Amino acid sequence: MRLTIHGLLLLVAGLVSGTTATTTTRLTRRASANETKDGLHSLMVATGKVYFGTATDTNNFDDEAYQTIATNRKEFGMFTPENSQKWMSTEPFQGNFSFAQADRVAQRARSNRQLLRCHTLTWHSQLPPFVQNTTWNPAALTALLTAHLTTVMRHYAGRCYAWDVVNEALAENGTMRSDPPSVFLSILGPSYIPLSFTIAAAADPSAKLYYNDFNLETIPAKADGAVGIVKQIRAAGARIDGVGFQAHMNVGQTPKREELAGTLRRFAALGVDVAITELDIAHGKVPVAPGGVEEVQQARDYAAVVGACLDVEACVGITVWQFTDRYSWVPSTFPGKGQACMFAEDYRPKLAYDAVVGLLKETAGLAPAGSAESVFGSDGGKATTPSPVNASSTTGSGEVHVVGTGLLE
Ligand SMILES: *[C@@H]1O[C@H](CO)[C@@H](O)[C@H](O)[C@H]1NC(C)=O
Ligand SMILES: *[C@@H]1O[C@H](CO)[C@@H](O)[C@H](O)[C@H]1NC(C)=O
Ligand SMILES: *[C@@H]1O[C@H](CO)[C@@H](O)[C@H](O)[C@H]1NC(C)=O
Ligand SMILES: *[C@@H]1O[C@H](CO)[C@@H](O)[C@H](O)[C@H]1NC(C)=O
């Protein structure tokens, strides 16, 4: 049963990614799909990058169809725990640490030979009540921060490729964020940022230490603020290795490839790595039809973000914030928006998946130029329905729908 469905999913993945293959060669490809370089991670590595990864967590562990894709190292070479390493999960009561959930994610990554990108330490959100509701003085909060970061990072020492040390410290205009209030900013001032990096560097010398935030891609003033944070950390004599661009984007409002590459290069010029850490690209109004104009635009937008990373040597990798709409955070957080992932709720790979695979193959020299463009269609992606030739992707998607639904029942 498991092997059959696994094989069917691979078959459909092969069909969808095959652009010019005949039926016969497609049938050949389906049998060896897991032995080709067709996966997102394998292709990403073939372009010279470190990983293509996904956020995931233990609430996804019992979904067999999900796991078939998530644990396929050809697709995903890195896991980020979506929630289980956040403060509310790892230290729900002061001094009482709880690693059981995050350990399961780390263990699964290790057994799949996937990297672990660890997330996150100092953040104003998803804190346990005791952090927010205690009246701290600076010394006590410094001691708390030191104990938390040191305990969590030592627990995972040597296992995290990178840690998001400080998350979302900036307001949209590039000043320090105070809305909603940050207990760290209000008690310690902006020095909580270099303090966190100093503690982190001592706790796990092998992890790359990142500052991570959203809208750096689209708001120059916020990117200015992040440049300031890199300089502030360095001026305090602390180590920072990278800046994470969360890249929670909206379909049709994603920066052009060359614009985003330019923003990434601003950070590369400071001597830090950059990474796309939480990529998803949401439709403003859902549902949208499979293979329709909205998915074509989404494919263009995904290709722009991935292309920007490929264009910048300092960009080490890309993480999607879940690969399937089934488990995306978007609809519950932003009602009415959604379908933001590369795979549909039923695990159909969308045009975004085809476009990214095409782009990675081109970049790795495994496919001719135009392989990604072909996914968008000769009309430049403005048609309201897919062309007949491109509609084969849609047909393949329909098969995934049947397979995925069958497995979940
Ligand atoms: C490919 O998948 C099949 C069936 O799941 C499995 O038996 C085989 O070991 C896999 N090959 C590789 C190279 O992973
Ligand atoms: C720590 O938390 C666990 C539940 O996560 C609880 O069972 C235990 O009593 C707590 N220990 C202390 C000392 O608070
Ligand atoms: C903590 O404070 C917040 C408001 O700052 C409040 O909403 C919440 O109920 C408090 N939690 C506890 C456990 O006291
Ligand atoms: C930046 O935005 C915040 C609101 O998020 C506002 O309070 C602050 O005055 C703004 N600062 C500047 C310099 O515009």
Automatic annotation (TrEMBL):
Transmembrane segments: none annotated. PROSITE patterns: GH10_1, GH10_2. One of its GO terms (biological process) is xylan catabolic process. The keyword Signal applies. Residues 370-398 are annotated as: Disordered. Its main location: secreted. Residues 384-397 have a biased composition (Polar residues). It holds the Pfam family Glyco_hydro_10. InterPro entries: GH, GH10, GH10_AS, GH10_dom. Residues 1-21 form the signal peptide. Keywords: Carbohydrate metabolism, Glycosidase, Hydrolase, Polysaccharide degradation, Secreted, Signal, Xylan degradation. It is found in: Secreted. Its EC number is 3.2.1.8. It comes from the Eukaryota. Residues 41-359 form the GH10 domain. Pathway: Glycan degradation; xylan degradation. One of its GO terms (cellular component) is extracellular region. The keyword Lipid biosynthesis does not apply. It catalyses: Endohydrolysis of (1->4)-beta-D-xylosidic linkages in xylans. PANTHER family: ENDO-1,4-BETA-XYLANASE, GLYCOSYL HYDROLASE. Belongs to the glycosyl hydrolase 10 (cellulase F) family. This is Beta-xylanase. It comes from Dichotomopilus funicola. The lineage of its organism: Eukaryota, Fungi, Dikarya, Ascomycota, Pezizomycotina.
